[in-house]
């Protein structure tokens, strides 16, 4: 038994020395021996995803059922051993219940007519599909016949038992009529030793039919074998073309070791830089992913055909190991070659080589300038965003930022990240925002100069960026919005002044006493219906000399007070009345006399 590191498999090689076997079939299994160990609920054959369907037509209706699970408690069959088999069958018909039973057989791999053990279940009623009782699990035991030690006869039910492998057959009956047989593809092997002397279960089985070569070369996966401190046992069943076998058991044991390996390898940072430190981490585990703890792991680097030690450390409780590697302390040519090494113990040791490409350290920055406004207008404030990006491989500190404007205007930095400017790692960027107070110009030229320093080598770097911006004259709407507060203030002030003047004038009017209105002379005419009116007699025209205009008459009869009242000089009249009360009395008397004189001619005219 050997391990092939390229195939990552165990290789079993051997030779058939018995010349009796010619053109033979051989079954070889790796066995996990459990002699003396009780495993009552362990099923080495356990298939829970079967979809084997059978049906039977009864009365013109097809009744389908399905084998869903199959479990077998033994696949190394010993004399006088009991084998427990469980299988679940489901009724697939949508509305008809069915009666189902099964027949179990263990038959020879060489010939299925050679029955080793057999058992038949009783019928079980399976309700139609969808109900809880549409499935039933059959549980049967099969008894392996005993081997007669004296005569060395091992008799089956209808033929001698040969060390030629075993098949399991399940025949399904629907309503006592055979519907079909399921043949398990997981075969068993026979041992002529009792389970007290040789017991276990198959981990891996290789079957080769009609072989003529006497040399064996079989591949087994690593997880199909047992490892130190346990041994891997191989059991062979063989028969020739004439179905001849032997009662001599072919088995052998091998001691194998588990391989180890380094997994989850990580390098931080992903792209180490020359002159910098990086971390190299890994997990030491077995090939079956069991972490190996407290194991001494070494790290070495390769230079000029030799390996030189970097350091060593023990794995932690998770099997992890980390090395801090300073590239200034190691020698290398094109790439830095490092290996992780564990010598091993009961487990085979592990070696992992790693080739690392170190990036030469470079100092480099890029600058971008963006105007935050779509269009920039004269006589306004505008914002510029400056992005400083570390496109090199070194860590930089920005030591100075110089901003030049042409023409010169007032500006200030309104946003800046001092933390990033003091430690700008490769691939990172920092942002600055600058506010500029523009005047009445048509263009603006910006010149940004960034000075930075390498934090490890103290090298300095200076990078500049220029940008020209077209300045537009602001539209009238811009001025409107600029002067809008002033306009609103003027309007409010005007309204306040007008309201103040109006209120004062109204207050004066309220304080002035109300004058008595001149009583109008009542009309003295008589109201008669229109039908009773007499046609007016035509009035002879008066001579121009005797005709007196009415307006003149009114003017002649109008006194001083009436004239003042007509022209809105009531206030002046009031003052005259207050100052010259005697004059007022005289004027009233004269006025009354004039009115009396005036009424006399009117009465005469109305009588006419």
What does this entry look like structurally?
The protein is of the alpha+beta class and 608 residues long. It has 3 domains: 2-255, Sandwich (Immunoglobulin-like); 260-356, Immunoglobulins (Immunoglobulin-like); 365-472, Immunoglobulins (Immunoglobulin-like, Sandwich). It contains 6 helices and 34 strands. The strands form 9 sheets. Strands 4, 5, 6, 8 and 12 form a 5-stranded antiparallel beta sheet that branches. Strand 9 and strand 10 (115-120) form a beta hairpin. The protein is elongated, with a radius of gyration of 60 Å. The termini are far apart. The relative contact order is 0.08.
* Poorly predicted sequence stretches spanning 5 or more consecutive residues: 551-556, 602-608
What percentage of amino acids are in beta strands?
35-45%
Biggest beta sheet summary: 5 strands, antiparallel
Strand segment tally: 34
In the CATH hierarchy, what is the architecture of the largest domain at level 2?
Sandwich
Break the fold down into its secondary structure elements and pairings.
Blueprint (H helix, E strand, L loop, with lengths): L1 E3 L4 E7 L8 E10 L11 E3 L4 E7 L2 E12 L3 E2 L4 E10 L6 E11 L6 E6 L3 E3 L8 E9 L22 E9 L2 E7 L5 E2 L9 E12 L3 E7 L9 E10 L9 E6 L4 E9 L8 E10 L9 E8 L2 E9 L5 E7 L9 E9 L3 E9 L8 E7 L4 E2 L3 E10 L5 E11 L4 E5 L2 H5 L6 E9 L5 E12 L5 E13 L3 H36 L38 H8 L2 H7 L3 H10 L1 H27 L1
Parallel strand pairs: 7-15, 28-34
Antiparallel strand pairs: 1-2, 2-17, 3-16, 3-18, 4-6, 5-6, 6-8, 8-12, 9-10, 9-11, 9-13, 13-14, 18-19, 20-21, 21-24, 22-23, 22-25, 25-26, 27-29, 29-32, 30-33, 31-32, 33-34
Keywords: Membrane, Transmembrane, Transmembrane helix
